[in-house]
């Protein structure tokens, strides 16, 4: 459990278009085996410390000719951002993907003392 102590709690959300592989025959659409796409995400306002980040698919365009194998996660979470990671494997063919994310963490408060 992440405890925020006496600090304010900040919430930020966003959307990331990860790739469109079918237009240019990219590896997510034409390849086989393990494939990964990494997209850096920066928060509009940094948190006081690393937040909890939840990610989910908000759009996927995927072939039904094979099993649909997908893994999506937030990695390398810091106070200023994270890396959105999409993975697939075997013969799965993914044309395009969009993900939404939600970050909840400690934030600055107007009553905090400034430390220089």
Automatic annotation (TrEMBL):
InterPro entries, per the entry: Galactose-binding_lectin, H-type_lectin_dom_sf, H-type_lectin_domain
Coiled-coil intervals: none
Pfam families: H_lectin (PF09458)
The H-type lectin domain, residue ranges: 39-104
The protein's name: H-type lectin domain-containing protein
Organism: Paracoccus niistensis
């Amino acid at each position: 459990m992440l405890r925020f102590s006496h600090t304010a709690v900040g919430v930020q959300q966003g959307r990331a278009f990860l790739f469109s592989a079918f237009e240019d025959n990219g590896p997510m659409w034409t390849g086989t085996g393990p494939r990964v796409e990494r997209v850096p995400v920066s928060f509009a306002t940094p948190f006081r410390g690393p937040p909890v980040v939840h990610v989910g698919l908000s759009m996927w365009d995927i072939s039904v000719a094979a099993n649909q194998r997908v893994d999506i996660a937030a990695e390398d979470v810091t106070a200023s951002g994270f890396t959105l990671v999409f993975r697939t494997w075997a013969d799965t063919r993914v044309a395009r993907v969009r993900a939404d994310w939600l970050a909840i963490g400690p934030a600055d408060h107007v009553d905090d003392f400034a430390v220089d």
